[in-house]
Amino acid sequence: MATEILWNTPDSYTATFLFAHGAGAGMENGWMTDFAERLAGHGIRVARFEFAYMAARRQGLRKPPPRAETLVGEFRDAVATVGGERLFIGGKSMGGRVASMVADELFEAGSIAGLVCLGYPFHPPGTPDKLRTRHLLQLKTPTLICQGTRDQFGTIEEVPGYGLSSAIEVHWLDDGEHGFKPRVKISGRTNEQNLAEAAAAVASFVANA
Predict the structure, then answer these.
(1) Does pTM surpass 0.85?
(2) What is the layout of strands, in order, in the sheet containing 44-49?
(3) 6 forms bridges with which residues in the sheet?
(4) List of domains in the chain
């Protein structure tokens, strides 16, 4: 089945971001739509796509998310569909994890310029010993991970001890959870501030990668 792409295309752009969704919500969910629009506002063309299990839900077929490892072929297909120069890949949560699994082969082939993960699921919530980081220890692809400091999939107290590759930059969003939303009454930060900061961090990374 051909990969369906949703485009956010600014009048002028110098890079494209292939943007995959998280495990439980598709490419048209509010968070992805909002973030895609923010990136387009920074002059980045955004291509959103869905894995087949999520696309099937639109036809009434309720399928659970498969293991991330089984989705790498679909990500490669999406890269082939979008193509072009200065292509960055990544996604929200699981989408970023799948992208990270194919990043080095695509980077070494000259197909992509970098990787962007928005809320990386370093481990399942409540089970910090079940790490999903082995392939990140030797990653060669220039990578940006935007992560809330209190993300239940990997907090600011946990992640620095993982020994991640020097190719990976982690940008922390103050008091943010998995979707970067802070507790305004505790931190003084707003959701808008964290989302705007994350989008600006991605734009800076893309411009300098």
Answers:
(1) yes
(2) 5-8, 44-49, 15-20, 87-92, 114-118, 143-148, 168-173
(3) 48
(4) 5-208 (3.40.50.1820)
